[in-house]
Amino acid sequence: MSETKVARNAPFKMDVEAGKEYYWCGCGRTATAPFCDGNHAGTGINPTLFVPEKAESVYVCGCGRTARAPLCDGTHSKR
Fold first, then answer.
1. What three-state secondary structure class fits 65?
2. Conformational region of residue 27, where left means phi above 0, alpha means psi within -120 to 50, and beta covers everything else
3. Close Cβ partners of 65 (under 8 Å, ≥ 6 residues apart)
4. Confidence band (pLDDT; 50, 70, 90) for 5?
5. Among 3, 49, 50, 75, which has the minimal tally of Cβ within 10 Å of its Cβ?
6. DSSP 8-state code for residue 27
7. Is the pTM of this model over 0.90?
8. Can you say whether residue 34 is alpha, beta or left, with left for phi > 0 and alpha for psi between -120 and 50 degrees?
């Protein structure tokens, strides 16, 4: 498995729609951060499906090291 790259050392504030499927990039290789564009192929790291229950603003992880994927848990500030 490849090592996760840091797309951004801060979260992305996103407005999400209830019931819509979002695929969060955990490998950091995407050009469309924080969402997957398929560049994980061959890394052994797969995107995480996120389907919000309600429309709201959320903070999506940018460093790829959150324990609450895809939501930011503050891990970026502890490194």
1. coil
2. alpha
3. 4, 6, 75, 76, 79
4. confident
5. 3
6. S
7. no
8. alpha
